[in-house]
């Protein structure tokens, strides 16, 4: 998924790394947090051995290493990171206090930056993909398609987009100089970073009265906004639920979004420290109007949870390409120096019992080029709800 100053490819976050949300974001980086009801706050692939007392072996080792490091006057976060790196936990992550605050801010749908989306273009250059209306980049006249070749005087052509994102982000009211190119003309703009809000749910009217609900990430409140959008749609009109590039977010919000199309019932099951648990939809959702879910390889974790629930329960026809396959559960723990370690403790399954982790979800209709048009055609063929 694309997001302000976020890169579209998943990437694991370690202490000191950019908190670029795999919304391609704090979410789009592959440390997309997927909070489960209070006990667990994130999903990530790969299970760990579970200690009989409840804590994983790695959790205990991380806590012990951090405590010993702090007692010796060293960095607890660094010691914890070393343990996580050796553990084999693919999505295990350690955040210092400032990073974790940014992570939580992103889950609230906010970030500090200049209001632009960056991506690697077909010719290998870093370009502006989208500009947030009213943000610093927009006010400076920067437009989608502009080439971004330098930040604060540093050439970025050969740097990963995640590094570019890290340079764009920063503290509120600090400045950043962008080297830009448009139609052969080079110029520099110095922008002041500010705290901006992202719109995780957008609604667009389609031909024939149907609506497309695009969910870019499951930030706080997004589930309620999906439900409101469904209720506001014309009676019987079909819904195209666009989850492409959605790297996940909060599982509670994903369940709320699925509830917009279900009248209670199972959304997913998951194991947490060896115990099987279930997530259920709220009652009262719209079970009549036609729904098509549009997915791709960037549809991850919490977004896969929604996809699996609607697909397995026959509530939506899924169109697109196989989803990412990120369906494991993490829980955060605070270390002695205030840093936070998030480690994998389990996995979830769709209502039919399918494991998502490492496999993804195969859509009912495979489509790559022109997937959106095909999805609209399928939705049109489903008719209207009764």
Give the tags.
386 residues; alpha+beta; 2-enoyl-CoA Hydratase, Chain A, domain 1; six-stranded mixed sheet; 9 helices; globular
- Our measurement of the CA-to-CA distance between the termini, rounded to an integer number of angstroms, reads 33 Å
In CATH, what is the homologous superfamily of one domain?
A: 2-enoyl-CoA Hydratase, Chain A, domain 1
Listing every helix as H and every strand as E from the N terminus to the C terminus, the arrangement reads HHEHEEEHEEHEEEEEHEHEEEHEEEEH
- CATH architectural designation of one domain: Alpha-Beta Complex
Structure report:
The structure is a single chain. This protein is of the alpha+beta class and 386 residues long. Among the domains are: 112-197, Pdz3 Domain; 201-332 and 346-381, 2-enoyl-CoA Hydratase, Chain A, domain 1 (Alpha-Beta Complex), CATH 3.90.226. It contains nine helices and 19 strands. The chain has helices spanning 57-71, 76-87, 97-107, 136-139, 161-168, 222-232, 251-259, 302-312, 371-381, and strands at 93-95, 110-113, 116-120, 126-131, 147-151, 154-155, 175-182, 185-192, 194-197, 201-205, 211-215, 239-242, 266-272, 275-280, 291-295, 317-320, 328-334, 340-349, 365-366. The strands form five sheets. Strands 10-11-12-15-16-19 form a six-stranded mixed beta sheet, with helices on both faces. Strand 10 and strand 11 (211-215) form a beta hairpin. The radius of gyration is 21 Å and the shape is globular. The protein starts with 56 loop residues before the first helix and ends in a 5-residue tail after the last helix. The model is unreliable at 1-54 (pLDDT under 50).
